[in-house]
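Notes to self after the call with IL:
- keep both proteins in one doc
- input above output, always
- annotate only the second one for now

Protein 1:
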Amino acid sequence: MRTAARFLFALLLAPAVWSQTVAINGTLGDKALLIVDGGFPKSVAIGATHQGVKVVSMQGDSVVIEVAGKRMTLRVGDAPASVGSTAGQQSSGSRVVLTAGPGGHFTSEGQINGRVVRFMVDTGATAVSMGVAEAERIGLKYQNGDRVQMSTANGVVQGWKMTLDNVRLGDVLVGGVDAIVSPVSMPYVLLGNSFLSRFQMNRTNDQMVLEKRF
């Protein structure tokens, strides 16, 4: 009985691991139409909260939401974003721990200039790299960047080099990160060395620890 009681007490003290999906279905004046966990759209005014999701501000088709003290910018029509999840990733202000997924790849949700993306760690990539479709989805003005020639399996193609305002992984935010936008479609945003070089990296079995350099 005492063992069972200790176990129950430990469960009550353990931090909850939870997540929600949030999407913006549209806007009506000063209200955003939120879809939380695939439910029916709910009209939520600025400053109001629905199922733990607070609408902080709106500008055009962009809506800033807040969940558990963390803010995220979503746009109308974006794919549902996972918020509030702590599964598979731990972080502080200077440290991120990633766990390898199927195939041994390290993937994680993060943000570029406040927009949600899905990263895959690629130590062979010189810079953060993405396809044109993803760059357009998150509103990058990549065509204002420097034109570069890129070698692909189908020959040489033209890409663009630019500097991202900021890249967030977990609670770690890095500013002024070089990126390459390619006309070749990519399933992930490759988290290359223009970001990774800011960290001391250590890998043990299926975990990768990134410690920010100061």
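Protein 2 (the one to annotate):
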Amino acid sequence: MKQISLTLLCCAATLAAAAQEVRTITADTVIMEDVKTGEKRKVRIIIPGKDEGVITIETDKTYRIDSTEAKTEKREEAAERKGGRPIYGITFSRIDLGLAKLMDNGSFTLSDNNRDFRYRPGKTVNFGFDVLQAGYRFNNHFRVFLSGGFDWTYIRLREDIDFLENTTPLTWERSGVDYDKNRLTSTYLRLPLTFEWRSKRYSGLGRVRFAAGPEGGFLLKGTQRFKSDELGKQKFKDDYNFTQFRYGAFARFGVGGLGIYAKYYFNDIFENSPAQAGLQNFTFGLMLGF
């Protein structure tokens, strides 16, 4: 009986000592983030033993989680403090989608010589984008760069006329076919020289931007497409006396990545065609990406 009592007493003492040793358990350090402020805190969680109160969290240090936009802004500010830097490379930006308007010697009303060029305003459109750029960023608010891209103007004609290929000056004849679609298209390699100013970055909005400059373009091709019940779809390629090199000016305004644009070309749409002298192109619309 005495041996049993001593054994029980030893077991009780051992359990008490073990309970005393594991009374407090400290977890590994973990990271907790405030989803509203973006703050990241390193904390140590202390879990007490049985009947010893509540869990304790000890804050060690506060860190800041920067968004990608904030990191970009910091890099730009650092570059500004060091001075300007060159900018160059491949891009896919300044994506234009707008309406094209024909101007006849400064008027949106076509003269008698150009009555056959009557078009459908809502379906005469401009589309283009830039794929290359090279320039210099002077500071965080101003940069100058030359870019290269492509530009299309689609003129949706009302009249059933066929433009003749390999003919100068521009010549056309009326067709006996009733066309459901008659579209004359010019494709240019565009080369705008951009002077861009931008504001500071506003939270939730981005930067306010304004850009303007001259633009030149080299003709790549001309196309006329037809669609009719009699002949189906047809497509013909020629330069159709489009101006080989056109020049003009543009302006862009936007907030964040969205904006509006307008372009006006100083020389005529067609060259070596005296009857179409003074017929020019003006486009405006929406833009995606500065």
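Annotation: Residues 22-65 form one domain. The two ends are 93 Å apart (CA to CA).
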